[in-house]
Amino acid sequence: MRVDLFDFDLPPDRIALRPARPRDSARLLQVTPGGLADHLVTDLPRLLRRGDVLVFNDTRVIPAQLEGMRGSARIGATLHKREGVREWRAFIRNAKRLKPGDRIDFGAGVQAIASDRGDDGSFLLAFEGDEPVELMLTRAGRMPLPPYIAGKRAVDARDAEDYQTMFAREDGAVAAPTAALHFTPRLMAALAEAGIGHETLTLHVGAGTFLPVKAEDTDAHAMHAEWGRIDAATAARLNAARAAGGRIVAVGTTSLRLIESAAGDDGAIQPFQGDTAIFITPGYRFRGIDGLVTNFHLPKSTLFMLVSALMGLERMQAAYAHAIAAGYRFYSYGDASLLLP
């Protein structure tokens, strides 16, 4: 499909620079074949049905943004995928000043050797020493806010908490599964009281999620792979809930993509562990999920393509036009939508 079909005009003031407080007070746009309805995230217990199951991503964002020096050249690095115990693939700023074999000094006793330059301009960084890389990053790295936020204000101490979900426990993401940022213990208790269950899986979100689609046609766009896992017990419980008439509602496109990667043609979710580079565009037949809670996405992004595949392009264009006119807040710290096809 032509990528420009997924374009739309978004006023800059619709981009949220801070999350709603409290988190579950954000607005929620319900989108169904029957139309649009304005709600709050706290309305979810009455918008879902007893027996439904929400599926969250329990990945934890690491301080993956690094600034360092290669000699006299300043080098920026955004880690986006672990490739070994001490090796990370990274997007590099000022990459023309870096070549394989160069050492980058990130300060605080953290150094890495660059190698294996990819076609996308990324480098493989091998961190030196014996100390766990995660500990090194806590000293030298900072929270990797999306460029549409970091380009408008500085990252600060509040982001260390704001850009982490209540489910975060598995270190490895360089971007938050932002739909789950809206959930609080208070909301989870209300959902449980309403008979709505929840499960967790792990998908370590990569910085490739922020990359614009530069191709003119979706067939020419290559997704970056991300590592994920659904264990056998979780898969079995999800299948049992669906067999009993419950709906599987992914919280976030990361949860959705992993479930769809693990689902067979019959819709049964299988245990999964490994990389996925699934790219969902209109025409895709969904197998493992029945609904989605997600934020509002960028024009011409793979994520707007995904929600258009789920609900139909015209319906999502109308939903986004309504959201813009009604003052909904967009992107990572913005408001949410509930998509029920």
Automatic annotation (TrEMBL):
Gene Ontology molecular function: any one: S-adenosylmethionine:tRNA ribosyltransferase-isomerase activity
Pfam families on file: Queuosine_synth
Enzyme class: transferase
Keywords assigned: Cytoplasm, Glycosyltransferase, Isomerase, Queuosine biosynthesis, S-adenosyl-L-methionine, Transferase
Keyword set includes Transport: no
GO biological process: tRNA queuosine(34) biosynthetic process
Cellular component GO terms held in the UniProt record: cytoplasm
Signal peptide: none
Binding partners and assembly: Monomer.
Official protein name in the record: S-adenosylmethionine:tRNA ribosyltransferase-isomerase
Lineage: Bacteria, Pseudomonadati, Pseudomonadota, Alphaproteobacteria, Sphingomonadales
